[in-house]
Amino acid sequence: MDFNDIIGHDNIKNNLRNAIRNENVAHGYLFQGAKGIGKKRMALTFAKTLLCEKSEDNPCDTCPSCLKFESKNHPDLIVEKPEGKSFKKEQIDNIQRDIRTFPYEGNKKIFILEDIDKMTKEAQNSFLKTLEEPPSYVVIIMTVINSYSLLPTIVSRSQLIKFNQIENSLIEYELKNKYNKDEKQARFIASFSNGIMGKALKLCESEEFKVLREDLIEIIDDLINKEKFRVFTFSDFFEKNKENIDDIMDMMLIWFRDLLFMKEIVNEDLIINKDKISILTNECQKIPKDKIHDIIKVVKRTKNDINKKVNFQLAIELMLLKIQEV
Ligand SMILES: [Zn+2]
Question: Residue 149, Cβ neighbours under 10 Å: how many?
Fold first, then answer.
């Protein structure tokens, strides 16, 4: 694993590699970005490069340090994440003690601390002292989804690196060439994962996601072909898959957006659910354009309501009834 294996995020890669070349590596980094966007992979690659005995700005993959790193056996790399819901006091104490101990092998010791927002305010405060005056051999890389949830002093003591979504086309290319997905599958997964490589890879391997999608498409089709409409059976599906409700609502939005695109333009390239084109064509003939607009509004509103923790079942049933009405 080296920097060339990381898809996208070119600015961040260049920035980190320059820092190594110019011997300008900070003591504290804060990697911020969505779940699955590649923060940990970047942190590990950066750590591996810093520990490498030979190479300048990319791991050599042959020195004893790189080999130990790959076998997850490097004594100067410490990766910690919250045990359960938050970092335990004992964990923080151990990390702080460990930070004061010299490296075993080279001249660097790297700490990767995941989901740093899962530290209590007290723990953050006590950790801050370490971050303010770390020993010269220490590099601390922290990851967080959103830095707003941290003490401002933690953020200001670190170099903040923001990870943005990468282009869908990069993900699509990767899925086709490295993961053997056909063009249509790669297209759907890349669009659905919205620039987040980790999400795309998870979806690639998930049988559950495939079933979820097929079931949902069937439900939408039944809703549109009204005669088979059974609101309670349908709301059961949502209840059962409550944990994946964000994915389900996104899939619905993408589905109706596709229908809208089919109405408005005749360019099949813009369709995301390309593998389901015959179902879409059929449905497209049944719903007028303004009704599709209305459905999209209803789904968006329901998605918001659910995030605001309203009564789940009620919100879903109202949505299903409204989709049928329009
Ligand atoms: Zn090496």
Answer: 10
Which residue from 30, 4, 7, 36 is spatially nearest to 17, judged by alpha carbons?
4
Ligand 1: centre distance to CA 175 (Å): 29
pLDDT at res. 4? 93
C-alpha 52 – ligand 1 centre gap (Å)? 4
How far apart CA 220 and CA 298 sit, in angstroms, is 14
How far is it, in rounded angstroms, from Cα 261 to Cα 240?
31
pLDDT tens digit sequence for 63-108: 999 999 999 999 999 999 998 889 888 888 999 999 999 999 889 9
Q: Please tell me the distance from the alpha carbon of residue 94 to that of residue 89, in angstroms, as a whole number.
A: 9
Q: Per-residue pLDDT tens for 120-164?
A: 888 888 888 888 889 999 999 999 999 998 999 999 999 999 999
> Domains in the chain, start-ordered, CATH in brackets?
3-162 (3.40.50.300), 206-325 (1.20.272.10)
Q: Name the 3-class secondary structure at 135.
A: coil
pTM, two decimals, is 0.82
> How far does the centroid of ligand 1 lie from the alpha carbon of residue 93, in Å?
31
Residue 33 gets the label, from left (phi > 0), alpha (psi -120 to 50) or beta, of left
Neighbours of 160 (CB within 10 A): 14
